[in-house]
Amino acid sequence: MLNGLAAHAHAVYPGSFDPPTSGHLDVIARAAAVFPLVTVAVVVNPQKRSPFFTLDEREEMLRRCTAEYPNVKVSHFRGLLADFVRKLKADVIVKGLRVVSDFESEMAFAHMNRSLSGVDTMFLMSDSSYSFVSSSLIKEVFLQGGDISKYVPPVVLHQMETKRPAQGRK
Ligand code: PNS
């Protein structure tokens, strides 16, 4: 239960961040303005056998992209988010919402995470200009040679360019 003011809360913002997008960064900036400590937590998902970026690369990009926020830390977790937030003694989970349809699945996650950990989820709306931006769409457009520079931070764009030969450009 999130008792008292957000001014004292430690928030965890989880995700795959493969890659981090400008939409993710928008949510991080909003969370950093509300909470004194925000942990951006990259999930280690053994089901996803060939992620575009390694865990280290994702963490490094996120660290560089969030360097301007002294209250933002970057970490990772395996297994359940509920266990991770309990281990950190975090007060709240932050999730971003882009469109109304995001809410349907996020509501179930929020209930499950609260049931498992007692930790509430708070939703922040990303800027409407990112409402259609997702990591999977960014990867698809990039791999087909499209311009993604409006949708990812420069650090991420640069890192993606280094992947282009290995991923095979058509
Ligand atoms: O960026 P994504 O892929 O949308 O993030 C999804 C994420 C990491 C938040 C979600 O898959 C997650 O919480 N994974 C950890 C495993 C877990 O706790 N599953 C139960 C969710 S109620």
Short description:
With 170 residues, the protein is an alpha/beta fold.
CATH architecture name? 3-Layer(aba) Sandwich
Biggest sheet statistics: 5 strands, parallel
CATH fold title:
Rossmann fold
What is the CA–CA distance across the termini? Answer: 50 Å
Report the average pLDDT across residues.
93
Q: Strands of the biggest beta sheet: in what spatial order?
A: 3-2-1-4-5
The backbone outline, from C-alpha atoms, is globular
Query: Given the structure, what is the number of helices?
Result: 7
Task: Note down, in words, how this protein is organized.
The chain is 42% helix and 19% strand. The protein has 170 residues and is an alpha/beta fold. It has one domain (6-166): HUPs (Rossmann fold, 3-Layer(aba) Sandwich). The chain has a five-stranded parallel sheet with strand order 3-2-1-4-5, with helices on both faces. Helix 4 links the parallel strand 4 (92-97) and strand 5 (120-125). Helix 3 crosses helix 4 (100-117). The longest helix is centred in the middle third of the chain and has 18 residues, at 100-117. The termini are far apart. Residues 14-16, 43, 80-82, 109, 112-113 line the site of 4'-phosphopantetheine (PNS).
Task: Outline the fold blueprint.
Elements: E1 10-15, H1 22-34, E2 37-44, H2 55-65, E3 72-78, H3 81-88, E4 92-97, H4 100-117, E5 120-125, H5 135-143, H6 154-161, H7 164-167
Parallel strand pairs: 1-2, 1-4, 2-3, 4-5
Helix pairs in contact: 3-4
